[in-house]
């Protein structure tokens, strides 16, 4: 039973446009959410996070939105750049000591110039 | 600051053989994680250490997998005997504290294991 779902395996966007990556979760106890980016042959790199007490968190070109009632979060990248091409993983956790990250399957973003 | 180091980067073995992976976390990080990432899936936690104690090993197949972090720094993950379905990338991550909110996990490059 997958608790974190990324239903779009891939997304293609033109440089300069907005990229929107979506993530759904089933466990209402999750209260902390993260996005990781992964390039080939490298480990995942932390990108941005959001606590369940917020509905938006912004860091430069990256914004994460959280809709708790819908158990849905999204990552917006504006403007998209070719260097953003990577696999993006959504992850969720409980904000208490000793809990693991539960990852989605990832979405491969391709940004063309 | 040096990142999480892992070795080897690649390993090919035959089924029923044994294999070991090594991880050196970021200096000062108390928490260390081993994840398994099967092709097309997201990483799945195998075991989490807080210093040299195990915090969570609920998803570790203990009949064949073992891990240790004897001095609270480096860690090794062993598989014995390996099965075909163990083919995956094994990722090590570390964080400053025990998975508290806002405690970022930093990942190493991973070890790609192929079991033939």
Explain briefly what this protein structure is.
The complex is a heterodimer of chains A (113) and B (116). Chain A has 113 residues and is mainly β.
Features:
heterodimer; A: 113 residues; mainly beta; six-stranded mixed β-sheet; five-stranded antiparallel β-sheet; 11 strands; 0% helix; 53% strand; globular; B: 116 residues; seven-stranded mixed β-sheet; four-stranded antiparallel β-sheet; 47% strand
Please tell me the overall pLDDT of chain A.
Answer: 94
Helix count from the secondary structure assignment of chain A: 0
SS-derived structural category of chain A: mainly beta
Strand percentage of chain A? over 45%
Bin the strand percentage of chain B.
over 45%
Rg of chain B, nearest Å: 13 Å
The succession of helices and strands of chain A, N to C, reads EEEEEEEEEEE
Straight-line distance between termini of chain B: 37 Å
| Largest sheet geometry of chain B | 7 strands, mixed
What proportion of the residues of chain A is helical, as a percent range? under 10%
Main pleated-sheet profile of chain A? 6 strands, mixed
